Prior knowledge:
This protein is an alpha/beta fold. It is built from 11 helices and 28 strands. The strands form 7 sheets. Strands 1, 2, 3, 4, 7, 8, 9, 16, 17, 18 and 19 form an 11-stranded mixed beta sheet that branches. A 5-stranded mixed beta sheet has the order 22-23-24-26-28, sandwiched between helices. The chain has a 4-stranded antiparallel beta sheet with strand order 10-11-15-14, with no helix packed on it. The longest helix is centred in the first third of the chain and has 18 residues.
Amino acid sequence: MSKKQKLELTWVGKESRPRLEPRILIEDPTKSYHAAKRVTDNDIFDNVLIHGDNLLALKALEADYAGKVKCVFIDPPYNTGVAFTHYEDGLEHSIWLGLMRDRLALIRQLLSDDGSLWITIDDNEAHYLKVICDEIFGRSNFIGNIIWEKSDSPRMDAVFLSNRHDHLLVFAKDISKTEWHRIPTDGDSLPSHYDKVDDEGRKYYLKPLRAMGGQGDSRATRPTLYYPLTAPDGSQIYPKRQDGADGAWRWSSSKATAEATRIEWVAGRSGWAPYYRIYADTGNGRPVETIWTHAEVGSNRTSKAEVKALFPDEIPFGTPKPERLLRRIIEIATDDNDLVLDSFAGSGTTGAVAHKLHRRWIMVEMGDHCTTHVVPRLRKVIDGSDQGGVSKALDWSGGGGFRYYELAPSLLETDKWGREVISKEYDAAMLAQALCKLEGFTYAPSPDVWWQQGRSSETDFLYVTTQTLGPEDLVALSDDVGEGRSLLVLCAAWRGNADQFHNLTLRKIPNHIRSTCEWGHDDYSLNVANLPIAEIKLVAPLPSKQDGLFDWEEDE
Length: 556
């Protein structure tokens, strides 16, 4: 008997998945911020900043944003065991893997079919993370691993390797539908091997026309590519290998005739040799390469200086990313008005850069620095007073805005008798909105029809009430709904025979929803204290800071 198997990464607790409550979002108008007037026609005002647990926030976004996010950038805790100022970044591997898996699964749901995910990570978890992403996104949707030079100088106290890079793992939702922009180039930024210029001022370099290496460089293997070319002195030149045997050209005879202007003859000691020109494509830019240097996109030193310039009196954020790094990612993967998501917002760099590039954005951050760092930073961006980072290069002068949201408390709370009941913090509108999320309806209260609080189609609606409905109420409600429409009624209780109303479906709350979610669970953060760790038996003393075996400080 055969058993179907698959290649996968396993870890302790992999099969355990949280049953997330789809919370609603509550705006705090005192923290939302908008420019006083429109600065350009491209200003965007409906950006979203969420303060709260990012796993719950991703679940909260699912109903409204599934399939709508063009680019996700995340800079998750690296699980290095180092305690940073703003969060604890140290977890046993299996815990970290499980928590990342849960977030990545929701991120995939939010991505559009042509969207892409970009994750910064270091060597500690990069290769495990890549395998998790293979499982969630499909190995065929792996685009590549970019090396970012995060440090602009070596660490002289390194014992083995001076770590100067981070990984940037890139996955597509559907690689067959993903299209990217090339990196803009100009004549001054071309690689040095473009060392020649034609009569029209176009830069190029030369490559031998003779096939070189492999099985296709001989007359025997490629007979149609063995033919004469006429040199400047009129002589007939055939392709010859370095050992003197008959060779082959790279181009067919017809292509050599059609592309004759690209052929350039060079006189050497052995006679004439044809080369062909490879021109720099400065109009369409150059392809995205897998090594990004600090000179191109900035380093840790760059990003710390950017944040320090914005908040000179604040303790610098531990691991910000430079604005040029985010600019490159967003310009490659998105167009104007596309939606960018960062669910590990940190100091808010992603939103700041997306805003300056006229992209819509959503950021999530659970730490207090969501208020102390991110909100003030975005205010400076909107006011135009932030002229650091990429502002001057983009000629940024402000505009737009964002709305600040908190996650609502859990819908159910425990009363003094230990029963799960509707939270007292929910008013009627909040309750209807929360139940719409739970039931898969869109919250859309009608101003004209009192029982139309949510809809799942043009004919299927939802109505929520905390009252007990009597027989006369059900008759009136059924008559009002009428033929050709259906209504899900969530109420405290009802009297009478519900089966006689073919267009009504009645459910009691909270009984109907008690088993659907993990209620009252507000923190799914990367917190090692919440989960078991295997006992560790020490056979030798752990190295101390003075031993120099650990990176205890950030790169400068």
